[in-house]
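Form 12-C: Joint structure prediction
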Amino acid sequence: GAVVSQHPSWVICKSGTSVKIECRSLDFQATTMFWYRQFPKQSLMLMATSNEGSKATYEQGVEKDKFLINHASLTLSTLTVTSAHPEDSSFYICSAQRRDSFSYEQYFGPGTRLTVT
Amino acid sequence: RKEVEQDPGPFNVPEGATVAFNCTYSNSASQSFFWYRQDCRKEPKLLMSVYSSGNEDGRFTAQLNRASQYISLLIRDSKLSDSATYLCVVANLNFGNEKLTFGTGTRLTIIP
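Section 2 - Result
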């Protein structure tokens, strides 16, 4: 299979602090990882696309200085929410695309629920 | 206009019934189409890809009409375990990566 993990699965933090979320592909190498955000009763929205060893590409309206993405290896990408505020509370989901596949299929992590108080 | 539009529901359907979901998309250049299911507070999981020729996987049938930019999903003999939110997803190649655009989902509850 193709397993993607995220850590932590949930986090509560105070306003103004930073939170780091990890996304790992456990049994495959991922050329590309994607970060999504989902607010209650809304669809998943792509935040950024991250290719290993290069800078992430952010979607329109997503602040790159607030949502720092690092993709230092073929199995790990991190998303850091800097100076988090209550409006950043959301479900953050990553996905990974296999390096060894001709398919573009994305494998999703279980998500991280962030609550900022 | 949203890129991917779905009827949000909810659909409350008795067990054993047939239920159909529809979806429209705005970008005529979109290349790939999928249905995902998402359980409450979980990540989305791929249910099936959608092709113009139509495809079937057990009780699930998906259809794509490129001319109308319309995608459908049919679930026959619905089970309690089918209760979930069904997401219509459209993919476009973007600088060598496949960008997924999700609909808001249609919530389905199967009633015993």
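Section 3 - Comments
The mean pLDDT of chain A is 92. The longest strand of chain A covers residues 30-38.
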